Amino acid sequence: MRISVLLGLSIAACSPVTEEAPIASAPADAAGALFVAGKFGNTLAKVDLATGEQVASVASCANPHELATSPDDKHVALACYGGTSVDIFLTSDLSKVASIDLGANARPHGIVWHANGDLYATAEGRQSIFWIANPLGDANTFEYGTGKQGSHMLAVSPDGRHAWTTDLGSKTVTLVDLKTRRAPQSVEVGEEPEGIALSPDGETLWVSARGSDKAFALDPMTLAIRHEVATGDFPLRIAIRPQGDFAVTSDLADAGLTVIDLKSAEAIRTIPVSSRDEAEDRTQVTILWSPDGERIYAAETRANTIAEVDFASGKVLRRLPGAGGGDGLAIIE
């Protein structure tokens, strides 16, 4: 199972299956919009959460991956993993308003649109992080080398002074000082660390290592491991609830979510999104919390669907459109 799922993650091996319609009507309080990067179809789409329908779709760069919305919800930034740019679109109609090139072989993947208004992105092909200041204006770029292979996902401190990457190829987590440019600091964390999330107070860095079936709690500044938590099979991503009380991992080979109590650093329950037998066909990848922390969105990349999950009950409320191999997700209220 593990080998076939891993093959399913590669672009060449994946062939999307038929798109499914939503399985239920929208929750009564559903509102806002979900943005979906279709990495096989090279698209960016917008889904109305009130109706559950896709309302806009535009062509994007090759192999688009992670997404991030601006602090004012007026723009969404897209990491062009198959190219060299970060592209910015209006959330209203998906008109492209900017394209910021990061240089040869950049392959940007992880992306954060910070509360300070600046963008931060990994450039996996260059083994670096980019800080993009004033992205809707002068878009000044500053590059910081990690020196590690596969710097994939990204977290940034609340004050914008530090960033952290998970480095798949090097099996490390790297701390980058964005202000003083001190030499980056790296430590090995499990096998194939990929998911990363910083607690809202900036006090704990959480990493999911997909090859270890574990989540790790680290001291953000020393990178010392404080806790190890067993998860489901192949935890590809980790996301912290906006309230800062729980995290969930996206367990690709189980097609479920492991819920971690951050205060006790213990796994307290599992939420099945689909069956283990369906895991390879659906390929659950990116996960995203709703801004109120009541729902979780899980991208089922090969099924062209996004599962909307009620956190309290663990029930899958409906499946939303995720055409083109939906992977990267972003949301506005």
From TrEMBL:
Lineage: Bacteria, Pseudomonadati, Pseudomonadota, Alphaproteobacteria, Sphingomonadales
Descriptive protein name: YncE family protein
Organism annotation: Qipengyuania psychrotolerans
InterPro entries to which the protein is assigned, alphabetical: Haem_d1_sf (IPR011048), Host-pathogen_enzymatic-act (IPR051200), WD40/YVTN_repeat-like_dom_sf (IPR015943), YVTN_b-propeller_repeat (IPR011964)
